[in-house]
């Protein structure tokens, strides 16, 4: 099995072995994501060739991409970041690699991986929420990842009232204050000091630096309000935090739990957990989609 | 089949005949709801006796109640309005009537009725939203009414930013501006003129009365913002508006569609529909739950 997770900035690929809870990457590759669907297919084909070299038993490819995804028909419906619309990924990748290709959405596939082999195991109703450049969520309902028509789980783009503009055209979005990108950008705007990312801001928060603490506090507040909306509508038993920002661990989870406790009234109080699979979740999820495809046929 | 819908102010009961899309009430009774679970069971037992008089073939009761409901164990977990906690409704009603009793949540049962025999027929992903004294929603996901752990669909209690306090202890709730009760109350507060309900305010809006128009406009804005949140998280193909306020028809739906169009950016744009079953939806849904129970066993 070869799994490829086309991310907004980086594409991760892996040769994956094992089944069930034993699925694991045995060889990995990463490269910067090229914009444009045809260039992405070129990259996927090259990664597949590289990873299958010397391996006889690769039966399928699992591919996941961001944006709006039509899983059933193998089509990338829309990605603003990567610049495609209605592109037939499965058809193209199958033609280039000669391998059957399973197709999915990056966040939902990552949620599937956390559900089957990560920190959402055993949960029936949960929200798995990677926080990175953007924020979205996989919704686990009745023990399955809910797909709807492909445009679900946009918890990064709900209005939580802070009024700041968001790249999506709305104001007050969770993502405009709480994504890794927003945290880094807002720290620099406030302090005048450049940082390489949210991890730098987290380190400054640990050191008690005032601007960093203020930006972190606002991010936590936006996240807590977004989770509160999800709790009112879906009542999940747990929210599983993933992506780069979740690497901050208790520095994120502890104040987030406090803030949520302060906001929640009658809603079911979700347990807050950290995801287990880090930035490999999407790639492992892509492998699981390919395994499912082979088992179904 | 005898169906009973215990509402916040009124209890509706019906002798129901037919199956499938042909389910219909053949004899109906209404009475004011008494607070307290034991009094409710007394009323349910009396209504069942009254409706089954002279009818030989009543096989089961379908009962739906508001609040947090444990369908599986037949327990009314919590109702602030009606004053119960962890009350074993199914056990009590079965003991009193000698009839097997199916049990459910009023809003989800009403959603089930709209899905099977009303204006949500054929929808796979939809939100059915009765607007009355309160506001809540039944979530239809993958063609089924999603139950979760029983605390789902609280779209009346999401913060849409207007800042007014709500009975639930939060501020900015959709319900605090857009429920029938809130519309009537806010009109009177603003104008100093008493009304008997939101229908009076709707009539004044049609006549162009200034205070009524302002209150209506704010209600529509709160509803549109609530629906936008649902669209971001669940991407339903349609939102089906029910309850007393939906009787306003185009006076509600037309400005709501305009407002939603003004707010929506990348989210899937849900069709807005009016529910078909009016305030009988809960009672018909209770009958459907009883039919399902008999068919399953």
From TrEMBL, chains A, B:
Cited Gene3D superfamilies: 3.30.420.40
Superkingdom, natural source: Bacteria
SUPFAM superfamilies found in the cross-reference section: Actin-like ATPase domain (SSF53067)
A Pfam family reported for this protein in Swiss-Prot or TrEMBL: ROK
Example of a GO MF term: kinase activity
Cross-referenced PANTHER family: BIFUNCTIONAL UDP-N-ACETYLGLUCOSAMINE 2-EPIMERASE_N-ACETYLMANNOSAMINE KINASE, ROK (REPRESSOR, ORF, KINASE) FAMILY
Protein name from the UniProt record: Glucokinase
């Amino acid at each position: 099995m070869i799994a490829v997770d086309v991310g907004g900035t980086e594409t991760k690929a892996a040769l994956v072995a094992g089944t069930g809870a034993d699925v694991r990457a045995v060889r990995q590759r990463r490269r910067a994501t090229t914009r444009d669907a045809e260039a992405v297919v070129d990259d996927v084909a090259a990664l597949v060739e590289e990873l299958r070299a010397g391996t006889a038993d690769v039966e399928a490819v699992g591919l996941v991409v961001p944006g709006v995804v039509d899983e059933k028909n193998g089509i990338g419906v829309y990605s603003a970041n990567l610049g495609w619309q209605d592109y037939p990924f499965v058809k193209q990748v199958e033609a280039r690699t000669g391998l059957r290709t399973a197709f999915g959405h990056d966040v939902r596939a990552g949620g599937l991986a956390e559900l089957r082999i990560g920190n959402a195991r055993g949960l029936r109703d949960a929200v798995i929420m990677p926080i990175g450049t953007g924020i979205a969520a996989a919704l686990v309902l009745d023990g399955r990842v809910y797909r709807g028509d492909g445009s679900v789980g946009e918890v990064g783009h709900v209005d939580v009232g802070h009024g700041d503009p968001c790249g999506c055209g709305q104001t007050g979005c969770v993502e405009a204050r709480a994504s890794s990108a927003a945290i880094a950008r807002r720290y620099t705007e406030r302090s005048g000091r450049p940082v390489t990312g949210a991890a730098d801001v987290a380190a400054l928060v640990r050191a008690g630096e005032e601007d960093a603490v203020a930006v972190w506090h606002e991010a936590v507040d936006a996240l807590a309000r977004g989770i509160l909306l999800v709790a009112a509508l879906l009542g999940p038993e747990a929210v599983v935090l993933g992506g780069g920002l979740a690497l901050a661990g208790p520095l994120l989870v502890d104040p987030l739990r406090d803030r949520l406790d302060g906001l929640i009234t009658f809603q079911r109080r979700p347990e807050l957990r950290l995801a287990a699979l880090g930035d490999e979740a999407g790639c492992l999820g892509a492998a699981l989609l390919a395994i499912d495809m082979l088992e179904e046929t």
